[in-house]
Specification:
Layout (H helix, E strand, L loop, with lengths): L6 H26 L6 H11 L15 H21 L2 E4 L2 E4 L3 H21 L5 H34 L2
Antiparallel strand pairs: 1-2
Helix pairs in contact: 1-4, 2-5, 3-4, 3-5
């Protein structure tokens, strides 16, 4: 399937898609800050993203155990930055995600770093394997971040109803 497409086209295509998706996520995030948050809005992104694990059914996307550990550790490290910049506030009797000027730059920085890492590692790893590693990295980043957000949200929600 992927072997019939030249590797450089896959790298270029996946890089362009990553940039488009990253830009899309940033705009969604900026718009979401204007609406109250609830537990469902916090939980849905990692649950929806978990369906991407189905890619590992196909041999091209499977990664070695050491690569799983490496991608997971990098994702956990990146998640700490997102956790640090995601705070909630109470406005108009509802809980909102607090605007952070740094958050936009952090997302852009993570996106640029991801593209640079992809270009570096595309010379030594198969494109499918690299895609699998980046999915693991992203999932290992979003899950702790959303768990921390849910914990902060629930803590603030308790004070709201007291």
């Amino acid at each position: 399937m992927l072997s019939s497409i030249p590797s450089q086209y896959l790298i270029i295509g996946s890089t362009v898609m990553a940039l488009l998706m990253g830009t899309f996520v940033m705009f969604i995030r900026l718009r979401a800050q204007k609406k109250p948050v609830n537990a469902r809005k916090i939980i849905i992104p990692p649950v929806a993203m978990s369906t991407g694990a189905l890619m590992f059914i196909f041999e091209e996307f499977r990664v070695a155990p050491l690569q799983i550990v490496e991608a997971s550790v990098i994702g956990l490290i990146f998640s700490t930055v997102l956790i640090a910049t995601s705070k909630f506030e109470v406005r108009e009797g509802a809980i909102f995600l607090k605007r952070s000027k740094a958050f936009f730059f952090i997302l852009v920085g993570l996106l640029v770093l991801r593209v640079i890492l992809k270009l570096i590692f595309s010379n030594s790893l198969d494109v499918g394997e690299l895609g699998g590693m980046f999915w693991i990295l992203a999932f290992a980043m979003i899950v702790p971040w959303r768990i921390a957000m849910l914990w902060q949200f629930k803590k603030l929600e308790k004070t709201l109803y007291v």
